[in-house]
Amino acid sequence: MKVTAVHACLGARVEGVDLTRPLDETTFRAIFDAFQEYSVLVFSGQHLTDEQQMAFSRRFGPLETTINATGREDRLHPNMVDLSNVDPDHDDRLMDWTDRKMMYQSGNQLWHTDSSFKPVPAHSSALSGREVPPAGGETEFVSMRHAYATLPDELRRSLHGRVVVHSILYSRSTIAKGLFDADQEKGLPPVRQALIRTNPVNGRPSIYIGSHAWYVEGMDVAESRRLLDGLLAHTTAPDRAYQHRWRQWDLVMWDNRCVLHRGRPWNAAHHRRVMRRTTVAGEGPTVEPPYATRTLAWDGIIPSGVGV
């Protein structure tokens, strides 16, 4: 197995491994160690079935069950996420960005970390490129660990102990209204996440932000936004981003605890893009209690009856 860095800040390409076959313990340990070091791993030429992809991801932990946020039946295993512009009911019809499902997916073009809006945020994700467009549709990654290490000392110290409220209802409200029905909203209360997280394996800290990060507890919303937007700009500077240009049957895995990612647009009305994601669940909340308490900031975004 060969591991080669793809960017100075994060990411490596892994060669000489076939993920369609069960991995022996030595090979898996080498992949595990590379993952802790590089945070993003790229495996090319992996002709994975859904079952094989789930089996690989389960080596890292139990899988999350996806939320059916758009009310569309995708007919996949509940541990698989469908990221596609192909109509799940009509394989020959492509959905453009005006479709409700695609409007929801457009939120993936914001810098985010998967499931930070859940009380137990995700450990990692693996994305398989089943069909890729000829242009566009790239995925970009940045390291929140590198961002932490390059902050001014005084600012870095001031972030420790801070708690940020995360909400997918907030993040999707910046795109469009009405992406969730009332029952879905009730299952998505805002949650609390530590602003600084530490990798339990190697002890390396990172900031923990993204599009779902709404406001900092103990700060007003305007002050919170200045801080969070500044941290996001610092983290996502163009020279710090690895852009992955997809080839069919690439599998890319990333560490949601310390990596932000975003998808890039493509001509969805004319070109198919079919991706399958598995998401490894985290081990527990980053702070206690995990659920946020309603404040005035929720008015107009979080319906009454949702959350504490």
Care to describe what's here?
A hairpin with a 6-residue loop joins strand 9 and strand 10 (205-207). The chain is 22% helix and 23% strand. The protein has a 7-stranded mixed β-sheet, covered by helices on one side. The chain has a single domain, classed as Clavaminate synthase-like (Double-stranded beta-helix, 4-Layer Sandwich), CATH 3.60.130. The termini are far apart. The chain has helices at 25-38, 50-58, 100-105, 144-149, 153-159, 168-173, 182-186, 221-235; strands at residues 2-5, 12-15, 40-43, 81-84, 122-131, 139-143, 163-166, 191-194, 196-198, 205-207, 213-216, 242-244, 251-255, 259-263, 274-281. The model has no long low-confidence stretch (mean pLDDT 94). By secondary structure, it is of the alpha+beta class. It contains 8 helices and 15 strands.
CATH architecture: 4-Layer Sandwich
Q: What percentage of the residues does DSSP assign to strands (E)? A: 15-25%
Name the CATH superfamily assignment.
Answer: Clavaminate synthase-like
Radius of gyration (Å) = 19 Å
How many angstroms does the end-to-end distance come to? Answer: 49 Å
Average pLDDT confidence is 94
Give the strand line-up of the largest sheet: 1-2-3-13-5-15-4
- Let me know the number of strands: 15
CATH topology type: Double-stranded beta-helix
Please provide the ordered H/E string of secondary-structure elements: EEHEHEHEEHHEHHEEEEHEEEE
Q: Give the overall shape, derived from the CA principal axes.
A: globular
> Approximately how much helix is present in the residues?
10-25%
